[in-house]
Amino acid sequence: MIGRLNHVAIAVPDLAAAAAQYRGTLGADVGAPRALPEHGVTIVFVTLPNTSIELMEPLGEASPLAGFLQKSPAGGMHHLCYEVADISAAAARLEAEGARVLGPVKTGAHGRPVLFLHPKDFTGTLIELEEATP
Length: 134
Ligand SMILES: CC[C@H](C(=O)O)C(=O)SCCNC(=O)CCNC(=O)[C@H](O)C(C)(C)COP(=O)(O)OP(=O)(O)OC[C@H]1O[C@@H](n2cnc3c(N)ncnc32)[C@H](O)[C@@H]1OP(=O)(O)O
Ligand SMILES: [Co+2]
Hints:
- The chain is an alpha+beta fold.
- The chain has helices spanning about 15-25, 65-70, 85-95, and strands at about 5-10, 30, 35, 40-45, 50-60, 75-85, 100-105, 115, 125-130.
- About 20% of the residues lie in helices and about 40% in strands.
């Protein structure tokens, strides 16, 4: 079911500083910041030869990153995003197997349907699934 690793997400307290470090110190290809109020984050994507890094800072009072950054004020790895061919079929299969799908399918940062799986069901790792043509 899961395919390519679409991105690895890192929650950071200061997106501008993190983006500058990736662009300057690490010499990476860093995109422009994008506010995603419907997701409570502002992000930049770092483009790598084989995948992407999603740097994210909280946006708004109800950001899902708030609790995470309270526990890890310097930031840290937040989630992995795998690609699937059919997000609805994936959600149905996962729910049938007892996994917790967090909320409804939404439109993600790439304009494609995404969903999240509870970290406690997958070895302590928050998983995002993004529908992408294989
Ligand atoms: C979609 C746009 C964009 C894209 O790429 O397209 C994005 O990726 S936006 C990313 C931001 N959005 C989300 O993360 C949505 C899904 N997240 C959630 O629903 C919550 O953050 C949730 C349920 C994962 C955690 O909720 P909360 O922060 O309130 O913490 P809890 O105390 O309820 O956590 C319970 C338990 O899980 C551990 N936890 C929390 N976050 C993570 C994490 N990122 N990785 C691993 N574990 C995590 C937390 O420590 C608690 O563990 P415990 O042992 O009970 O203390
Ligand atoms: Co993501």
